[in-house]
Structures are given as structure tokens and as C-alpha cells.
Amino acid sequence: MILVLLGPPGSGKGTQSQTIVDKLSVIQISTGEILRNAVKEGTELGKTAKEYIDAGNLVPDEVMIGIIQERIVQEDCANGFILDGFPRTIEQAEALDQLLKKNGRELSHVIYLDVPEKELIVRLLKRSEIEGRADDNLNTIKNRLDQFKKKTLGLINYYKEKNKLVYIDGTGEQSDVTARLTRVLEA
Ligand code: AMP
Fold this sequence. Notes:
alpha/beta
């Protein structure tokens, strides 16, 4: 199974991925995590990515596509994976399609986690207190939501046209969202 979890920042992509990986015997690929680790380790990638992340801007497509290209051919991806935070632009989505095709694979599902903007801001500010992520401050949050609307929201139509998109209500208890998600995946 190859799953894309789409949704604005704070919609629960990471939390839900972590909850369902074991059940599905797949792994989670979070591009945000990969970048944050690179920043922590001070690698070349981390040095490039830090400025973008801190400002709430998207890291350039060619960098992100390179990361995914290397990651999805690793052995632990053989059984399937959940993409959490990728793709975020049409260019990334097209590159993903090509990479999967080259490897004889295809997307099983694209799920959009739907959460109203007001709730996203509340969630992200709360997360900043718990996790202390540098990009969870009000200014950066607003820019991340803006970037989402400008660059990522177009993916809804991209995947709708391919008959891949399923909407899920991302509000309410985490366990309820997981139940909705599981129902779609088991259908
Ligand atoms: P996330 O943890 O998914 O919210 O990502 C945190 C930050 O990492 C984003 O605000 C971007 O700066 C960067 N990032 C993560 N994934 C991508 C992607 N697919 N394309 C561009 N930038 C990304």
C-alpha cells in the first residue's frame, strides 16, 4: 500500500500516520522529519533547508524530489509506505507519479484530512508548547497556511482528476479520525 496523506499543517497527518503504520505493516515517510533531522545533524541538506523551514516556506522542489527518489527505493519501503508531507506542489506530485511508475508501483490512496483553519491555528499553537518546534509560532504558522493554499491546495484537483482523492473529516477525537481513515483503507 502506498498512501499519500494530504492536508494543511496541523491537520494530523503525522499523528495519524504514526497510528496506522503498524496496523498496515507499512512505514511512515515524513519529509518534515527528514528535514528537521538533517538540520539537527548539520548536514548540507540541513543547512539548505533551515532557512526555508524557519520562515515557513517550502524547500525547493528539486531538493524534495531528490530526497523522495532516494528514500522510496530503500528496503524498508518494499511493503508500502505513507507519505506524510509529500507531495506539496504539482511538480512534486508529477515527479512522484514518474518515480513510482519507474519502480512498477502506483499510489493506492490519497486522503485529504479536512480541518477548518481556525482549529489548525489553535492546534499548532498548542503543539508549539508541547514539542517546541521552531516553526510553530504565529507568524510562521500564518505563512505555512498561506503556502499551503497557494501551492498545495491545487493537489486536490490533481488527484481528483485521477480519481484518487478521498476526503476525511479531520476534526474531533484522534481515535475517531483514525477510525474514519481505517474505514476508507479497508473499503
Ligand atoms: P511538516 O513537518 O510536514 O509540517 O514540514 C515542515 C517544513 O518542512 C515545511 O514548512 C517546509 O518548510 C518543509 N517541507 C516538508 N515537506 C516538504 C515538501 N514536500 N516540500 C517542500 N517543503 C517541505
